[in-house]
Design goal:
Blueprint: H1 4-7, H2 11-18, E1 22-27, E2 30-42, E3 70-75, E4 79-86, E5 93-104, H3 106-112, H4 126-133, E6 151-154, E7 164-173, E8 181-188
Antiparallel strand pairs: 1-2, 1-6, 2-5, 2-8, 3-4, 4-5, 7-8
The protein binds a DNA duplex (13 and 13 nucleotides) through strand 3, strand 4 and helix 4.
Protein name: Putative 3-methyladenine DNA glycosylase
Family: Belongs to the DNA glycosylase MPG family.
EC number: 3.2.2.-
Length: about 210
Amino acid sequence: MVERSFLARPGLAVAPELLGSVLRHTTSEGTVAVRLTEVEAYQGAEDPGSHAFRGRTPRNEVMFGPAGHLYVYFTYGMHFCANVVCDVDGTATAVLLRAGEVVEGASLAAVRRPSARAPREYARGPARLTSALGLGRAENGADLCSPGSATALEPGPPVDAGRVRTGPRVGVSGPGGDGVAFPWRFWLDGEPTVSPYRPHVPKRRK
DNA sequence: TCGTAGATCGACT
DNA sequence: GTCGATCTACGAT
């Protein structure tokens, strides 16, 4: 079980140390656990790309709460994405879980992700990861740091610091408006489950 | 293997 | 009414 104090820091500090951790979710169907290989930090009010940028709403309520809870939101009409809420109560920073490797419950993950051709694709991508774990609206606000919780975050095997890679999010400058892009994405080099980098280009519909 | 269009609905303006 | 922290199918190469 990850200590809540570990998460009660800015998402930017927590994110790289979260790589390699294992998120386990148990339902009536069974248990699926994913070892995180790619995450992205969201700096709340300082991040134009964050749900919390325009202030507190019923939707992002959980982000403003205490650390160690799960923020699950619905997007694009069909997908769920999951974040680990960080920092102290009242501060809306979080870490988006972008990709991971299924290390337990692969058969159940296969049922939930029928379109995946290989096990490495079970959780390769934010929406795929939540799908493989079986996370949904019901898990929004779930406590990750309480013993016996159906949704839990656990320390994984030690990660070689040399394999941790970072990347700036294109077009987003850091606090202070100095024009410097901050490295808010973190992933483990060489992991086949890391999603391919694609610049964020919102598509316009007709 | 790569690139693009379409799907689909809740939150916010 | 508009847009989105995306995924998948499908056509082209």
